[in-house]
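Thread: "does anyone have the structure for this chain?"

Original post by V.I.:
We have the sequence but no experimental structure in hand. Need at least a predicted one for the grant figures.
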Amino acid sequence: MKSQNLKGKVALVVGVGDDQGYGWAIAHALADEGAKIVIGTWTPIMKIFQMSWDSGKFDESRKLSDGSLMQIEKVYSIDAMYDTPESVPEETKTNKRYLGSTGYTVSEVAKSIEADFGKIDILVHSLANGPEVKKPLLETSREGYLSAISSSSYSFVSLIRYFGPIINTGGSVLNLTYIASNRVVPGYGGGMSSAKAALESDTRTLAFEAGRKWKIRVNSISAGPLASRAAKAIGFIGKMIDYSHENAPLQKDLTSSEIGHAATFLLSPQASAITGIVLFVDNGLHAMATSTDSPTLI
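Reply from O.Q.:
Generated one for you, tokens below.
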């Protein structure tokens, strides 16, 4: 395959907390194509991530195709629930997980990255959180619903709002969504399906607005299920993986690297005319109207 020509490009991947999820896979794939990797890690787990990195816990996962190890230019503490220092509530500031942490709001991180790197070329939003994700929508509180929307979809709007001015012309932005945005996935509750639907709608609108304003592209990948640390919080990810394997057109395990490769293409100059799309990378499961293993079809 032709090189994606990302040598020297600065890529910020927000939402990496370990070496298991799609955010890490995308960072790894971008690094393999020569991009300079900058990481945004959720403030409460910043120290854990840094300790794991420094101790060599991620070394095996850091290996690139040429045998070298993926390097990170810098890791920033970020909490995309907050746009400015003034928006951080007092209970968060005094929470033990935030004590000693500063400059973690979206606007502050954007200013820090501009000071450190000037401009960036790539921005990846790999963030999602729903505190009541295990609750059916009918049992979800207003607070839980709005929290899911804020952290999982408005955070994308916020990132583009503050980082848009420092993304180079022709740059690209990407988020990760899930098929529950337009299909019913029982058990995926707490307003998370609504948050993903909002994220996809915002992808299209932001493709227009950011495209006209800064000449950057905005796309989304709807990824199939992966047993990452974050996904395990849902509680039934194993069953979703088994369901996908049984019913998708391609009966194979979906790997995080496949998401990474698809993301690298969308974020590269080779996709220069592609914006405002949701690309399914799920072994084709989205194409199925019925499950092949249903007792009614046997």
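V.I.: this helps a lot. The two ends are 41 Å apart (CA to CA).
O.Q.: and The chain has one domain: 10-297.
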